[in-house]
């Protein structure tokens, strides 16, 4: 499984979305399931999946799937 | 094996708490303002209790310091079960004689530093087992004290942080409490003169200054599962000073 697939699955799991739900264009609070509580769950899921510890500033800035891809790059995870 | 992070652990209450937790088998991440003091504490605890102790240092008023500490916890243990937010600074002086720099520093360390530490540790704590936080407040935060208005205000902020965090983090299984020491025989009392110390002892029902170990024992209790239904409390450790 590629890093991109793993990240997509992390989003679907944390936000309780269907297994085939499109997530690449998701933005924070645009989807009713991605609220502030779900955001913390999402970050924990991503941290577990990729074995990284994301700084608070990056947690706050993780406002979209695209941004999550960029932020993970800072931690050595090349999502593609 | 449980893992605890303690800030302000190179002396006083933080150091005593580190001893108590190491005695109970906790692996530790210890913070001190200066690298030398906390490294010495870490080395002695690891040798004495056979636990893993990692040391970090820096100004807790700088959010980068607590970020680095939490990263140390993650890199070494991948988890955090207990957090003791203890790093603090003390300055006494009548309100009209307290400079801007002292006011800024008291709030930067005691209030903002505590908030940064808790904020940065929460996500790792959420992965812990029976996760719990204890902050070090002060009897002055609720009672006030002439000559300590700004210090008291900065510690009152810790109480607000404690109660609000307890409400916010309770649903995630994280308990948050504080100890409010009375007059404890630590370096931070050095800013009081002898007459001031004697007056404080006279006001204390048990007739003595507290020890760092008196406070550390309550911290250890609040972190333990014996306190599993206790959260959002400010527990006085003051020998009856507030009666």
UniProtKB/TrEMBL annotation, chain A:
Pfam families (UniProt xref): PP-binding
Gene3D superfamilies in UniProt: ACP-like
Superkingdom of the source species: Bacteria
Signal peptide per UniProt: none
InterPro entries on file: ACP-like_sf (IPR036736), PP-bd_ACP (IPR009081)
Domain Carrier: 5-67
UniProt protein name: Acyl carrier protein
Species the sequence originates in: Actinoplanes palleronii
From TrEMBL, chain B:
Family: Belongs to the short-chain dehydrogenases/reductases (SDR) family.
GO MF, any single term: oxidoreductase activity
Provenance organism: Actinoplanes awajinensis subsp. mycoplanecinus
InterPro entries, per the entry: KR_dom, NAD(P)-bd_dom_sf, Sc_DH/Rdtase_CS, SDR_fam
Record domain Ketoreductase: where: 2-204
SMART domains found in the cross-reference section: PKS_KR
Superkingdom of this protein's organism: Bacteria
Keywords, comma-separated and alphabetical: Oxidoreductase
Name listed for the protein in its UniProt record: 3-oxoacyl-ACP reductase
PROSITE patterns: ADH_SHORT (PS00061)
């Amino acid at each position: 499984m590629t890093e991109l697939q793993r990240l997509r699955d992390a989003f679907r799991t944390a936000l309780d979305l269907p297994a085939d739900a499109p997530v690449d264009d998701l933005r924070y609070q645009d989807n009713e399931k991605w609220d502030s509580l779900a955001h913390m769950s999402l970050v924990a899921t991503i941290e577990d999946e990729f074995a990284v510890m994301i700084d608070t500033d990056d947690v706050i800035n993780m406002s979209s799937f695209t941004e999550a891809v960029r932020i993970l790059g800072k931690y050595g995870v090349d999502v593609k | 094996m449980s893992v605890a992070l303690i800030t302000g652990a190179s002396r006083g209450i933080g150091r005593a708490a580190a001893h108590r937790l190491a005695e109970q088998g906790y692996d530790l991440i210890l913070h001190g303002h200066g690298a030398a003091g906390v490294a010495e504490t870490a080395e002695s605890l690891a040798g004495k209790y056979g636990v893993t102790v990692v040391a970090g240092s820096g100004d807790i008023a700088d959010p980068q310091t607590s970020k680095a500490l939490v990263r140390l916890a993650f890199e070494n243990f991948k988890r955090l079960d207990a957090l003791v937010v203890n790093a603090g600074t003390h300055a006494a002086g009548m309100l009209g004689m307290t400079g801007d720099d002292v006011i800024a520093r008291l709030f930067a360390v005691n209030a903002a530093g505590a908030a940064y530490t808790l904020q940065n540790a929460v996500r790792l704590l959420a992965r812990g087992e029976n996760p719990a936080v204890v902050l070090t407040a002060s009897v002055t935060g609720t009672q006030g004290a002439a000559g300590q208005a700004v210090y008291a205000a900065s510690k009152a902020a810790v109480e607000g942080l404690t109660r609000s965090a307890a409400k916010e983090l309770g649903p995630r299984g994280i308990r948050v409490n504080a100890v409010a020491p009375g007059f404890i025989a630590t370096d931070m009392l050095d800013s009081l003169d002898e007459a001031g110390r004697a007056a404080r002892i006279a006001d204390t029902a048990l007739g003595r200054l507290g020890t760092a170990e008196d406070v550390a024992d309550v911290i250890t209790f609040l972190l333990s599962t014996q306190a599993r239904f206790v959260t959002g409390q400010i527990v006085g450790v003051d020998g009856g000073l507030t009666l």
